Structure formats: C-alpha cells, structure tokens
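Provenance and format

Records in this collection were gathered into a single text stream. Each protein contributes a sequence line and a token line. The two records reproduced below are adjacent in the stream.
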Amino acid sequence: MRAFFARKALKAFGVHYSYDVSYMLQMLRVSPVTFFRFAALTKLAQHRGAVPREAFYAAKIVGAQAEDCGPCVQLAVDMAQEAGMSDRCIQAVLTRDLSAMDVDTVIGFRFADALVKRAPEEDDARAVVRQQWGDAGLVELTLATQIGRIFPMVKTGLGFGKACRKVQVGRHSVVVPGRAA
C-alpha cells in the first residue's frame, strides 16, 4: 500500500516539474526499503530556516550543477522559481555572474562553489556564512549544496543520467556547464 502511494506521489512530482522520475520508480520497484530511506532526503533537501531564499537556492543549484548538466539543475531552478527567487539571480548563478547577484546569492554561491571544488577559499567562504547566518546557516547551506549533488549522482549511478540539455530560466535558455546527467 505504501509503495502504491509512493508511485502516485512520484508520478505527480514528475508531472509538476516535468522531471523524469524513472530512476526513483526503479529504486522503489527493486528495493522499496532503500527507496523509502532515500526518500527521507527529500524532506531534508527542502529544509530552510536560517538562511535567505536566494542563498539557499544558489547553494542547491551549484550543488546540482556540480554533478549534472541539465535535468537535475532544471529541477533546482524550477524549485527556486517556485519559491520566489528572481530569474535574474537564478541565471546569474547558472552563468557564474557575480556582478548580477544580490549579496545573499553571492554568499550562498561562493560558499557552495568553494565547497564542491574544495577550493582554498572554502574557509573564507565558511567564515562569511557563519558571520551572516551563524552555525545554523552554515549547516543549511552545506546540506543544500551536498544533497543537491546526491540526486544526480544516484540517477547517473542507476543508468538514467544520460541527457544534457539547456536549462530554462523564464523565457531564456541557459547552457549549463556540468559533468554528468
């Protein structure tokens, strides 16, 4: 019964976001216990309380972009738009245009970018996040970045991450430099 409702929810999610949920449906079919444990990440991936929307979604987009070149990035973009992040800020994150970002977006972007690259400026970016939003903000941005990477990695690992595509931000198509799905 639980699997029935999960399939319905996945299909509705796929329709709502125009996102291919085949890899999650396969996981549910092959290993329901694993699927339900994995599905718990979706709630964690949506948690935001200490940081502003722009910083949070900048981190999510950067995380997805580190592992993906289209569908999962599009999903993060669609969720950011749905949450009210401006198309201008979203496009600036995708194209790495710091001059077009507001302050909160820059902080979230720089932290996530340094984190996924394990860049030397990671400590400085972490300090800025702590100063701005405290340790709770640091936890949220870390999880937003890293959980944003898990979904495309799982999708690719299961053999479903094959297509790159342009990402739509409002009426604009953006070519996403990425690595995988």
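Adjacent record:
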Amino acid sequence: MKNFRWDTAHLKGCRFKGRFTGNDFGEWPSAPGHGSIEDCDFSEAHVDWSRFLGGDARTLRFPRWPCFTFLDPFPRWKELQALPWPGDKGPIIGDVLAAGPPSTVAFTLSATKLAKWCSTTPEAIKAIVEKVEGVYF
C-alpha cells in the first residue's frame, strides 16, 4: 500500500503483513479522535517512509531490519539530521522529520530503499543507526 493515510481508522490489535510505503498510521492532528493505533504488530511487514501519529509507540511492534524505526523523532530532528549519514542524501531525514506533525511518535524507514536512494549500502546505514538511542531495528 502506498501513500495511504489511516487517519479515519481505529486500529487496535491488528497484524500487518506486506509492504507499506509513505503511510500515516494513527490520529492526524487536523482530525482528532477520527483515528488511532494501538497494540498493532508490524514485525512481519516491510515499512518505508511511514509515520505513526499519536498514541503510545510502546504498544506497537515495529518491523525488523532491514527496516528501522526512530522513536519520538520530531523533537530529535536536528540530532538525527546531524548524524554522519552515508551517501549523498542522508541529512534529508532530519528535514522530513522537522516538517512532520509534532504528534509523530515513530518514523520507519527501509534501509534497503534508503541505501539505494542515497547511493550507499544498508550496512553503512546500520552502522550509523545502531549507535543512536531510540532506534528500533
């Protein structure tokens, strides 16, 4: 599923499988109460450039490597942008997080797709993210 906003769905106890790119899960700030996400499992899904909005990220199971998830990314965008990202486009991650809604509790990327886009390798990306607190992979 590509570029889908789940902002009108109340997702509880769901198990996600398949590929999700550019999805927003949870409550969109402009429509409070219309959507939510809790106790959902993404461990068997491939998720890329997707945000989790509102709610408690501790109730979610995120996808495993080669996907990785920044927890509480909005207030940390400058820290994440300043990392020595490999390749030629890594710092854009901070720009994306800065532009996102403050209610973003998690942001998930695919290292495989990011590496291809940045002209680097997933291993080079992992070498950076495994040193950062608040990253699940």
